[in-house]
Structures are given as structure tokens and as C-alpha cells.
Amino acid sequence: xxxxxxxxxxxxLSLMLWxxxxxxxxxxxxxxxxxxxxxxxxxxxxxxxASAQNKYSGGSGSSYTPPSAxxxxxxSLESRLMxxxxxxxxxxxxxxxxxxxxxxxxxxEDGTLLVHIxxxxxxxxxxxxxxxxxNGTSVGG
Length: 141
Description:
The chain is built from 3 helices and 4 strands; from the N terminus they run αααββββ. With 141 residues, it is an alpha+beta fold.
């Protein structure tokens, strides 16, 4: 009887081991986020979870105000003047431009473009050197 129970337990054990081999499969990743290939039905669920965790309450209290037409015109004019200044300096000339915040002096010394920028509010000066400019080379437009 003892021998019979040993065979029975070995048979049950081998059956369990053999059946577990048949259940083993390869793990496959399935994305959840619809932006990365997941189901589009998860979108509203993910948005609801993100909204529930969001602690920012940025209602109408935004401090951003769009620039006025006059500010945009002044910025455009300043950009155009700077472009012309660099173009003239690249062609052998010199230039100077003073705005409300900065003072810019551009000099072409033997193919090296030197740009001296002075911050009028702090007095800090920055010098930028651009080499490799020959006579007749155009910068900007």
C-alpha cells in the first residue's frame, strides 16, 4: 500500500509539472495610452485621472497679455535695423544702434566682426567675435 501511494503521488506530481508547461506563454506588452498604440477607449479614462491629480488652478488669472500693435511694430523695426546694421558691418562698414535697453556697436576689423552689446540697465558689456568674414560677404538680408 505504501508503494502504491508513492506511485500515486509521483503520478500527480508529474501531471502537475507537465500541465504547467502547457500553460506557459510569452509575455506581450500592450500599451494603454492611445498616443502610443493603446485603445482609443482609454483616452477619457486617462484624461479624467490626470485632471483629478492636477493641482494647478489656472483659470482666468493668467498674467500674459499679448503685445499691442505698436509693440509689434517697434519689435519688427528694431529687428530690421539690427539686420541692416550687421549687413553693413559685414560689407566693411561700421554701425551703432541704441534702443531703450541696449547699446549695440558693430565693427568689421579685417574680416572679424566684433559686436559690442551694452545693457543700459545694468551696465554689463558683452563682446561677440565672428571670424571668417571676407570683403563683400553679406550677412542677413
